[in-house]
Batch of 2 targets.
Target 1
Amino acid sequence: MTDDELVSLVFVPGFSTAMKISSLSGRGVGMDVVKTNIEKIGGTVDVVTHVGRGTSIKLKIPLTLAIIPALVVATRGSRFAIPQKSLRELVRVERRPGENPIERVHGVSVFRLRNDLIPLVHLDQVLGLESEGNGDGTSDAINIVVVQADDRQFGLVVDQISDTEEIVVKPLSKQLQSISVFAGATIRGDGRIALILDVVGIAQRVGILSEIRNWVVGNQVAVAVQSPEDKQRLLLFDVRGIGRMAIPLPLVTRIEEFRPGQVEIVGGEDVVQYRGQAMPLTRLNSILACGNSTPPPESASLHVIVCTERGRHVGVIIDRILDIVEETLVVDRPAGRDGTRATAVIRGKVTQLLDPSDVARLRGNAIADGVEVA
Amino acid sequence: MTGANQFSTFYLDGQWFGVDVLDVREVIRHQEVTRVPLAPAAIRGLINIRGQVVTAIDLRHRLELSPRNPQQLPMNVVVRTDDGATSLLVDDIGDVVRVTEDSREAPPQTLRGAARELIKAVYKLSDRLLLVLDTEKASSVPAGARRSGERVD
């Protein structure tokens, strides 16, 4: 019998090494139940063990039963979920009298997102729901969910943006699978069903795909002519006592808001519970050798940039998000050895840069303080 | 007596229909239906049955009968199909009836449209007729069916 075969004995029903059995435990049923149920849904269980070193158990679960983060939106009274991986950003535009933020190009709605023109798709129109309930025509703001389908971006106009949720993807029956705008369905906390939108399917259905492609090609040509350097997407924010700062967008996992009551103090450091982990919060003043820390007013909620390093989250407390810009980064002054940050002029203002080494240092601090608890 | 001669019965627009009792998983009250935009019109939407997402098909629409009065809430006859469970929306539920094979007749040749395709047999009972549906056909909607919300232009 090979080692693998020996290890797989733990899955045999009734196999037990227990000396004593009670009515509940030691009967050799547990691992058999795990294996049968995982295999029933099309997954696999793998056990690798080394004597004296440890055991790892790998569960592979098919995607149709996977849990994914998604944004829940509503249009005309129906709720839909948009997978987080398709999301780029959310834009809320206030309607001012006599001014329409949505412009039209030959009957197609477009929106100026910073320097880009992105096509807009009204979700209620794509889904044929125009005749139902109240639309967003009367509300004072327009909610745009900027999504990415392959290499193209477009804005999805919805009535309401709710919240992000972890959702369980359930497949649709065969007769509904041909509707390409849906990727599946999910059951929400209140027992109601929400359909999951397939962003690529929507782009194909509305047929603006070819138009977007033209735009993208146009943009790329324009960029190529103007600046051969790589453009970088940067998140601009403001920190009291430090001023304007920027961090490359790929380093940012999420932007979250916490109530001061959620902050707990562990080992002298501020920690919040976030996605099942204890996430350390850092005030930039403490790692950057500049400025005095002025504590924020107690009542205000905390704006936190979440960065992820090797699966662990680190939170950076900031005061205000300013913008997301796409810029060719020209560093005026490199980082000094005394702890001063590199600076660059972004959108006409001197801005300090937070880079990957800073993020790594934040994480290092967290581990040194013993916050890394399983 | 074999199971093939037992039928779970229900009513649609005053007519009495049945499906093989072995195809029926459960019968439940009206459930909240989540509409699926762009789906064929006979598909009323999705219902949540104990955490399972099940497609609900309006049999009145499938059989080309007049639409149900909106105040009348449909009942669900959940049937097993090759495509998992499907719920058939009906007006009201009848009994499970046992019929003898010699009362079976082929459906009239003059039937037209969906009824001709879906009604598998007619059983003569002493006071009325039971129309038995082909479960698999009744619980699927032809791919070419008109989509709700599809624009004509």
Target 2
Amino acid sequence: MHRIQAIARRDFLSYYKSPIGYVILAIFVLVNGFLFSSNLLSYRYADVGGQLMAISSILFLIIIPLMTMRTFSEERRNGTETLLLTSPASVAEVVIGKYLGTLYMFLTMTASSLIFLVITVLFDGNVDIKILGSYIGFIFLGAAYLAIGVFASSVTENQVIAAVITFSIIFGLMLADGIASIAGSMMSTFLGNVNLFGLTDLQLDKIGQAITDGLRWPNPTTRLANLESGIFELSPLLFFLSLAALFLFLTGRIIEKRRWSQK
Amino acid sequence: MKKEIGKDMEMETPEAVQAEKAEKAEKAVKAAKAPKADKAPKPAKEKAPRRIVDRRNRTLKTISVFSVLILVAILLIVNIGFDAFLAESTKWDWSSGSIYSLGDVSKEILKDMDAEIRIVGLLDREVAKQSLGDILLLLDEYAAFSAGKVTLEYIDPDRTPGIIAELDPENLLKLQGGQFVVRNDALDKTKVVTQNELYKYESDTSNPFSQPYPVGISAEQAFTGAVKYVTATRTPVVYFSTGQQEESYEENFTVLADLMKYNNLDVKSLDLVTAAEVPDDATLVVMLSPQLDVSPAAAKRLSDYLKGGGRLLVVAGYSNTRFPELNRVLLDYNIEIGGSRVREGNVNSQLGGDAYYYAATVPVSAVSTQAYRAIVRNTRSIIDLKNTKEWIQASTILTTTEEGVAETDGDPEKSSEPGTQVIGMAVENSGFVDGSTVTEPARVLALGSVDLVSDMMLLGLGDISQYNQYFVYTSLNWLAEIGEDSLFIPYKPFPSYYVTQGDATSYWAAAVFVFLLVPAGLLVTAMVVYRRRKNK
């Protein structure tokens, strides 16, 4: 465990030894601040939880690739990966340690939004428990996306390519929601045109809906709706954790392969 | 010696073994490559390590692929299993006022229900999710709390046109896309819930061009009411009288009508002038702000209806109209619709300093088990005739404070002495004898304020409206005896995230701080760090 913590601490502090950590924080506060200020000035309105969820998609597209692109890529580029892989730490410890390093950075960034909560309280705005749900949803979705970013960083030594891969996966997941609806609709139309089994309109509609649901199920972006509304549920959190576990495991396999690689 | 032992032990760790193996493998590879470099032909020895390495790589690859597949399978099983069996029990409504959760009344109705109910949203589920996302969460609760008796479907009639004919074969309900249909196939009863019924709307009364905007959710009232309606074997009817220039319940009194509908009461109109009699299925007759007195024939019809155990609600705000014929009917109930306009003398009870617009007192009575206040305007006196009879039970249900004044014929010059003025009474007469048996007791409720039951008062006063709603509900409950499973579900207001303190200057200061100063400070720090790194 102490090896994991050591790696995590080293990676977390590295964000602040370069400009990247400050730039990430600045982007986050700037986007949040713009939304918060415009709502406050125009409508005297301050819903920090809703605001966090509203900007999560666009923020994750920019910030997660920035945050994770260096995780393994930089080690490879600098030639320090060999040191890491030949250290007493196991592959799992290395992967988890590096993931936690980015997660700490992400949590620090999220914590910076507490400034908006303080201002809301000062102006006697509504700070209810729904905000906690929004924060939990934001953090868990971010944690899942970070794992995707860490995975992308492990497959290439080029940071830009790693960032592009992460961006593409997250963007693809966002598009997949719409694609799922279209696919379901197209399938029911196709089956209706072929009509091999003599299905009724209602049955065709249900098949289309089932296909849409099936395609939508593995998509993390569809699982935040309830948390946004104030319904707190464990199911999406378990899903986000599973997604993170899967991508970290994949990262582990890739690192393992490289550790034993003959190149 | 100790150091040596320690060293040996350290070398025994799995990492050390791995490292040793890796070193050996590397040496083996180098050894395998070496002859090539020297160009010395040693074929038998050089192929063996490569084969070992290839075999090991293949094994690693196979292990990787299988371990990933196994992990994916485990995660799928865990997630799908959790969604199927534990998702509902690990869900909590953290919204303000639990607006997405069913209340106890609805849960009780669903628990006790035997019928199989179908709720069909006539729209694509994705469209519904985008336009009615919050409502869908509430609808899910109907399925969850009914132990499978309520099924929920979303069917787009554009894609599945047959659904309209399936739900309404004779096209009596004129179903349209976007509506919800609550249906009980066993009783062949259907109730339509429109999207307007799902939210409570308000509009800015100070702005004539203001569009109504949603301020809360009333979907639970609508759907639970619909479930009650389609599961009831009998649906009593409330008749709103016409013919005396009454107000229409379809215009400014829709909330009153909805409250009846949600309690399994059908609402219809009845022309007292032309009708031969009050229909047998009438559970209640409502006279909503009549501007003319009833004719003697209509009065007889009303009297006959009441003597057969009927129920009458007369709502008459102050006007110049007098009701001698109607009062003749009410004589059997010891009350009279008065001719005085009532004003409130207590300034603390007045709204906006208007003595004719005030908070009236609702005392504990046959109608209400608790005292509270309800908002009234332009009130007329209701007179208790004090002709005490053993079989007549009269209750005062709405009054002014002790500083109330009755103005005879609405003339402030002819004001009474200040005192408690009665503006609402509820009377039960159990004295009508039909042959040898006493008939069903008749009940009459007279209110001296029309505004009290208007949409404006039942919706437009924010939280205060709930008192008027409750008054109307308890009055209806007493009159129509909607009974133990009666339904009073107040709308659930959306939480407000508007700030209440501070001024424009402080908002600007906050905006400059979070939008300019903090990001600028971070970017300057980033530049400093960058320059330091560069100069190192």
